[in-house]
Amino acid sequence: MYAIARPWEPRPEGLASRTPLPLLVGLAMLTAAAGIAATAEAVPLGLARALGAGGAQGALLATAVAWGASSGRGGVSPVLAAAVVLAGALAAALSPIGAAAYLAAPVWLWVERARLPRLGLRHAPVGLVAVGAALGALLGAHLLLSASLTLGYGVRPPPPATLAVWLAYDAGANVLATEAFFRGGLFDRAQRRWRFCTATAVTTAGCLARYLVDPLLPRSLEVMAGAIFYLTLWSVGAGWLYSRSGSIVPGVAAGVTFFAAYRLLHVVP
User: Fold this and answer.
1) What's the rounded Cα separation, in Å, for the pair 68 and 195?
2) Distance (Å, rounded) from C-alpha 167 to C-alpha 87?
3) Rounded to the nearest 10 degrees, how much is the dihedral formed by the CA atoms of 88, 91, 93, 98?
4) Which of 151, 168, 146, 31 is nearest to 95 (CA)?
5) 171 alpha carbon, distance to own chain's centre
6) CA dist., res. 174 & res. 229, Å (int)
7) Positive or negative, the Cα torsion across 134, 139, 142, 143?
8) Distance of CA 210 to the CA centre of its chain
9) pLDDT at 74
10) 248 phi/psi in degrees, rounded to 5
């Protein structure tokens, strides 16, 4: 009688279930080896940075893919996800034109979306994608204004080739891996266990930790405080957009638009 009155519901997966730990250990060793080799001047600094960044971004995307893949045979390999990101990073390190290889990751994910049903790779309402882009533009405009007035930074577009490399990195690795892991993976799992506010707090804390340990972020107090402010708003907004659409696309639109503005800042001499 209890089974009739209360149908059985499967327990939600643990937050870390199906995490590809051996792959993550291997990527961590690769990142550490790249740092050691660069310190010993055994490899060029640009190549070491590419290996380190590619390993870190690849770890996020590979974990998201492992979490989001369909169970059983025919799932998508997280190793391939990490390899796609690493290939983009290495190609960009070898040539500015090679940065176009970063875009292979979002194309590959979209092609494989049918085998990644839990990753939020679905069409989102155009209106929510526009809201995401508007959120990123608003945060970016506020960043440019406040930074140019208070932090000793100015607004100046970098050379087109340099800007293209950064935009490809953001769209194909930086923002993509962040949204896939923190929204399509972690937030999706957290919201099945807890309320929206709790799930948002968990993913926002993780997202802040991811960027605050990023060696590309300047270490001044003002920059760190600004990063906490803007990244918190982006993460909360992206979580809300995901909860409304079930897709990471609006959050990616917000992140790419925001970082496009961030790339226009330069230090005033």
Assistant:
1) 21
2) 17
3) -100
4) 168
5) 9
6) 18
7) negative
8) 9
9) 58
10) -85, -5
What is the rounded distance in angstroms from the CA atom of residue 135 to the CA atom of residue 4? 46
Look up the pTM and report it.
Answer: 0.89
For residues 87, 91, 94 and 95, what is the CA-based torsion angle, rounded to 10 degrees? -170
User: Six-digit token pair at 183?
Assistant: 């929204």
Task: Report how far apart, in Å, the C-alpha atoms of 226 and of each of 3, 13, 135, 151, 153 are.
Answer: 53, 35, 16, 10, 13
CA 88 to chain CA mean position, Å: 15
Question: What type of residue is 19?
Answer: T
Q: What is the DSSP letter of 114?
A: G
Whether 38 contacts 53, CB under 8 Å:
no
Burial of 87 (0-12, 13-18, 19+ CB in 10 A): middle
Using CA atoms, how far apart are residues 202 and 185, in angstroms rounded to an integer? Answer: 12
- Tokens at 129, concatenated: 């994608």
Which residue type is seen at 173? A
Rg of the chain taking only CA atoms, in angstroms = 19
Q: What is the pLDDT of residues 38-78, one digit of tens each?
A: 787 777 888 888 888 888 999 999 999 999 887 655 568 89
CB 104 within 8 A of CB 88: yes
Q: Which amino acid is residue 183, in one-letter code? A: R
Instruction: Round to whole Å and give the CA distance between 39 and 27.
Output: 19
User: 126-142, pLDDT tens digit by residue?
Assistant: 999 999 999 999 999 99
